[in-house]
Design goal:
248 residues; alpha/beta; Arc Repressor Mutant, subunit A; 2 domains; four-stranded antiparallel β-sheet; 9 helices; elongated
Length: 248
C-alpha cells in the first residue's frame, strides 16, 4: 500500500476517477499485471480516464491467458508476482505475441533493470513514479512499435481502423464484410444520433441504389448478430427515422 500512496502523490490522480471509457479515445489496449489490487485499480482508472482499453491480471497465469484473448499492445508488468515472477512472464510473452512490455518494480538495483531488459522488456519504471511519466512512456512505445494505431479511432468499446477497414469490439475483430463495415462505420460516425434510412442507404449503397426495400434491415440484423446484440441495446431502431448506435 505504501507503493500505491507513492503513486497517488506523484501522479496527481485520485481513485475516484470515472470508471468509463471516453466516446473519443486513444488507441491501444493495455494489460496491467500486478498482485496488489490498489496498484491495479489506480492504474486502471487513470488509463481508462486517458481513453485506453484496459484489463488487469493478478498473476502470470492470468496475464498469459489475457495475452491471447485481449491481445494487448502494452503490458505493464510487475516483477514481484506470485508463482511465475515478472521475468519469466516477460520471456513467455515475448515468445507468444507482438507486445511492448514495460516493467514496473520497486527494485532499483542496476542488475534487476538489466535482467528485465535482457528477458525482453522494452522499458523499465521504478515505483513510485509519476503517472504523467508512465503515460509518456506508453505513448512513446505506441508511436515506436505500433504506428498503425495512430490511424485507429476509439468510440466507446469500438475501435475503427480506417487504414485496414477493420472494426473491433472489446478488442476483437468483428470479421465484417465490406457492406457490414460501411454500415457500422456510418453509425459510429455519429454515436447516439439517429440516422435516417435515406442517409444510410446513400452512404452504404450509393445514390443510385435500386435494390430490395428491406436490404438495410437485413444488414442491421447481420451486425446485431456479430455484436451479440440480441436485446438491441447497441443498434437501436428509431421508429419513423432509421437507426442509431449507443456506445458506453
Amino acid at each position: 500500500m505504501s507503493e500505491q500512496k507513492g503513486l497517488l502523490e506523484s501522479g496527481g490522480l485520485t481513485l475516484d476517477s470515472a470508471d468509463s471509457e471516453a466516446v473519443s479515445a486513444k488507441p491501444g489496449r493495455i494489460l496491467i499485471v500486478d498482485d496488489e489490487q490498489g496498484i491495479r485499480d489506480f492504474l486502471r482508472f487513470g488509463l481508462l480516464d486517458e481513453g485506453y482499453h484496459v484489463k488487469t491480471a493478478r498473476d502470470g497465469e492470468e496475464a498469459l491467458a489475457l495475452l491471447e484473448s485481449f491481445l494487448p499492445h502494452i503490458v505493464l508488468l510487475d516483477i514481484m508476482l506470485p508463482g511465475m515472477d515478472g521475468y519469466e512472464v516477460c520471456q513467455l510473452m515475448r515468445q507468444k505475441a507482438r507486445v511492448s512490455i514495460i516493467m514496473l518494480t520497486a527494485k532499483e538495483d542496476i542488475e534487476d533493470r538489466v535482467r528485465g531488459l535482457e528477458t525482453g522488456a522494452d522499458d523499465y519504471v521504478v515505483k513510485p513514479f509519476a503517472f504523467a511519466e508512465l503515460k509518456a512512456r506508453i505513448d512513446a512505445r505506441i508511436r515506436n512499435q505500433f504506428p498503425e494505431l495512430l490511424s485507429v479511432r476509439r468510440i466507446g468499446r469500438f475501435e475503427v481502423d480506417k487504414s485496414q477497414r477493420l472494426i473491433r469490439y472489446d478488442g476483437k475483430s468483428l470479421g465484417l464484410s465490406r457492406t457490414e463495415y460501411a454500415l457500422l462505420d456510418v453509425l459510429l460516425e455519429s454515436p447516439g444520433v439517429a440516422i435516417s434510412r435515406e442517409q444510410i442507404l446513400r452512404h452504404v449503397w450509393g445514390e443510385d441504389f435500386t435494390g430490395e426495400d428491406n436490404i438495410l434491415e437485413v444488414y442491421v440484423r447481420y451486425l446485431r448478430h456479430k455484436l451479440d446484440d440480441h436485446k438491441r441495446q447497441l443498434i437501436r431502431t428509431v421508429r419513423g427515422v432509421g437507426y442509431r448506435i449507443d456506445v458506453q
